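Page header: ASSEMBLY MODEL / four components / 460 residues total.
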Amino acid sequence: MSEDQDKTLPVDRRIEADITRAIYDQRMPPGTRLSEERLGELYDVSRTVVRKALFQLSSRKLVEIRANRGARVAQPSAAQAREVFAARATLEAAMLEESMTRLTPADIDALRATLAHDHDTPTNETDAAESIAESGDFHKALARLHGNPILQEFLDELIGQTSLIIALYRPREAELCSHAAHGELLDAIEAGDAARARETMHEHLMDCLDALALEPPPADALADMLGRAR
Amino acid sequence: MSEDQDKTLPVDRRIEADITRAIYDQRMPPGTRLSEERLGELYDVSRTVVRKALFQLSSRKLVEIRANRGARVAQPSAAQAREVFAARATLEAAMLEESMTRLTPADIDALRATLAHDHDTPTNETDAAESIAESGDFHKALARLHGNPILQEFLDELIGQTSLIIALYRPREAELCSHAAHGELLDAIEAGDAARARETMHEHLMDCLDALALEPPPADALADMLGRAR
DNA sequence: TCGATCAAAATTGTATCCAATCATGACGAC
DNA sequence: GTCGTCATGATTGGATACAATTTTGATCGA
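Prediction written out in full:
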């Protein structure tokens, strides 16, 4: 959907954007070490500028920097995951309700289009990543209708963190953020029922949260992972 | 209210905190140049660490960094000012409404105490700064009741930016964020009327926005400032 | 006297270097 | 044989040195 990077982007921005994209696309899993020297080699640049990029990323909570221990792709805790979804629920519900008064039919059509295009994409198992990204895009499209760039940018941040959360806590089977739910959402919007739209959004995000496997991993996850009885 | 810095704070954090405080207290006006070398001298540290602090501050939009032109205390435009207040209205109204269900009488008492203490402070003209900071504290106290650290932190950011906006656009006479409004807010909260509380919060912030002198400055503000007819 | 061009100074951006801290592996004691 | 200690290596944190850009002011010309 979004095109490749601008050629004129400063190198540090470029690194930042590349890592961000890699995280969004689930190519770079939580916990991945980000060595300053290695990144410097890859982009043919000194550690100074790499560090700059890493700091930017850490301020968006996509990477964690621990003193003297380097940077890793962030691994939000279960508690943080809940907080992110709760924050999204509060924010997106409020934004949506406020948007409702000034929604044009054209806006709604555009949303349907996004959803349709979304549905088109073949659900090959390998890129569930694709599906996740496009689900995020739908939420971003909704937020854009509200018209406040500050809230929009903040939500982008939260959606970014959601990528990490999904990577960490998505159960094997289920798909998150079902298309069906987005459809329901659109129905409520089209009906012009602000209160219901708000409520639907809130529930949708809480459903997404509930679909995650946030429970404390079984006491010895190790044995489980190895497929051995203890 | 909040005490002086922790002694064990890393230097870059310390610089960040000091500048933040100076901005909040209206001692460091928008547009102030922040020379890397000068700051380095002041804290007896190299530019490397100063830059780190400045970048942090710029990610919170308290300072603006322009390529090869150094850092200044940010000067939000009138448009940005509107966006900040609109974002606060949306967010704080939503948070407040959600908080209402789980508010205890103790919480309300604590808020009244904050407000009373707030009222106590003598309104000497010199520190209108004090009054601004405490008004911010009241809003932060409300947000804390919601219980979501992510939204809380984000709101802190917005309130910080509000300091800059007030510094830039407060008209000579008026006080912003009147105590009266906070009193009304508390009444609505105490009455347990979530919808009214939400609406009151929204209106309060919009009133604050309207009280600002955001209009494009008269074509030659310079002449005005010098008290000369053109 | 005003304006433009150009040179010098100051300031930021980046690279490199050294110091400090943490991780890894070997050795030795129990 | 296992655990603890210590030394070595790798990696980050910070300071300095250098390059690039901008700003300032000075000189020259109209």
